[in-house]
Amino acid sequence: MNKKPVVVTTAKKGVFFGYLTDRTVGSDTVILTQCRMCIYWAVEVKGVLGLAVVGPLKGSRVTSAVANIEILEVTAVMDASPEATKQWEAGLWS
Known about the structure:
With 94 residues, this protein is mainly β. It is built from 2 helices and 6 strands.
């Protein structure tokens, strides 16, 4: 599978960004590389879907990246736009 940038949400309300390396259709588990978590996003992002479209903006809080992670209880996997990917990779914490 090609590694593609995605935003993932979980049943525990976690919001993550990373590169999808493994996903079984129908499974609620994904494996990401270079994964970051958004702790808080600015109102200008306009919600979780905005994190996939524009990414975290000034005022957001994004963690450092971990090399690999298995995320459980996945509720959504969204393709991240090139603009959003750039913002996530910046690791903004403001």
